[in-house]
Amino acid sequence: MRAFVVRARAAPVDSQQFLAGIGQSAHTEILAHTLMNTLFVAQSHRDDVVVYLVLESTSDFSRTICFRSSELGHIGGFHEQNLTNKIAKALTVSKGMDKEQLRDVEAGITVRTVSFEKLVQELAEDYQLYMLEKKGTPVRDVEFASKPCFLLTDHIPMPKKSFNSLKRLGTQHINLGPKMLFASQCVVLIHNELDMRL
Ligand SMILES: C[S@@+](CC[C@H](N)C(=O)[O-])C[C@H]1O[C@@H](n2cnc3c(N)ncnc32)[C@H](O)[C@@H]1O
Q1: Mean pLDDT (the chain, rounded)
Q2: Intra-chain end-to-end CA distance of the chain, in Å
């Protein structure tokens, strides 16, 4: 199993604001692009992937939308609008939720009011955490654990205080090369690196 967490610090948890953020300063389209490249391959989807999108621009709780590739039904197409609509639907379902509640959205998709910090604490019990960042170990020198979980951000960097808590959870840092890439490009390289080692 491969897990990916995208911490989207600029993404609104209100579904209308989320949709309005496409192509604007919130750059919510990043989430659709990353979702596309983590879950799908040509003519199919990967069957061993779980993706967590953590949307943090909120006046109450972060929303963590989870996509499990093995449980997803027919998604209805790979275009950006379809994927952003799936995220917006999960946000609508999450309206009025209290802290740390979970709701089902549709097959393979759930939404939780859980923070990034709490989520990674939970994931660290099952997975080896790897943070994608330019100062990390070159990916080709990394020996991956059997259950890796990759942590990425949107265009806003991980806050400094998160580095200490991630360190306590044994997070390793990975570099994917000299260029600053989009999160959606990082996940393709990670998948490919793992695919080549199978
Ligand atoms: C567009 S980048 C984020 C840019 C952000 N402004 C920053 O300075 O970190 C999106 C995600 O991809 C990761 N990333 C981008 N290029 C990378 C590279 N060459 N190696 C490792 N991670 C990378 C970043 O760490 C971040 O999690």
Answers
A1: 96
A2: 13
